[in-house]
Amino acid sequence: MQKFKFKDLLPALILALICGICVFLLAGTYSLTRGEIEKQEEASAQERKLTIFPDADSFEDLEYSAEIKSELQAKGIEPDEVFVAKAKDGSVLGYIFVTSGFGYAGNIETTTGIGADGKIVMVIATAASDTPKLGKEVEGRPFLDGFTGLGTDSEIVLNQDVAAVSGATISSRAATGCINRAREAYQLFKERGLIG
């Protein structure tokens, strides 16, 4: 029977030490850059909102009760965020719904602007982690412009109301699903008298 020697364990200990140092350095880098990353994400979100409603002076969170939140969750249509776009004089220009879902290979986030008349003003999608040249194509204006002007009173059907991106059907379906959830949430808020 061979005797255990400390030198046999040394490579594993060195590897564990290197891994520990790497984890420590990554955690330190994240904590140093987290504030800047959050600022950039907030600036990007504000830019998307202003792209949809360029005449807006402010974007206020839409407040709703725990009861409505439960209803949204039960229906599977709770948005990540909802904002009211207001002009300088305080009049409501429309609403911004941020929703997300899983595409072909990553998360897709849609920012949907719905005007005070109940029609979709514009949609902006980000698919940062989806497949380049396929899933990320749902970020393009040719696909997203198909939603502009559509009403919110009925379901938007892919390849009927809006053409899917060729070769990216799964991501197109995911983006359309996000926009439909925004549309349904808008209708629920309207029915409950939270929006005009």
Provide a descriptive summary of the structure in words.
The protein has 196 residues and is an alpha+beta fold. The protein has two domains: 8-52; 54-191. Helix content is 43%, strand content 19%. It has helices at residues 6-52, 66-75, 141-144, 169-191; strands spanning 58-61, 81-86, 92-102, 107-115, 120-126. It has a five-stranded antiparallel beta sheet with strand order 1-2-3-4-5. The model has no long low-confidence stretch (mean pLDDT 87).
Spatial extent as radius of gyration: 23 Å
Compute the average pLDDT: 87
Taken as a percent bin, the fraction of beta residues is 15-25%
The largest β sheet comes out as:
5 strands, antiparallel
Distance between the termini: 83 Å
Fraction of residues in helix: 40-55%
Question: What is the N-to-C order of secondary-structure elements (H for helix, E for strand)?
Answer: HEHEEEEHH
Give the overall shape, derived from the CA principal axes.
Answer: elongated
Question: What's this entry about, in short?
Answer:
With 196 residues, the chain is an alpha+beta fold. 43% of the residues lie in helices and 19% in strands. The chain has a five-stranded antiparallel sheet with strand order 1-2-3-4-5.
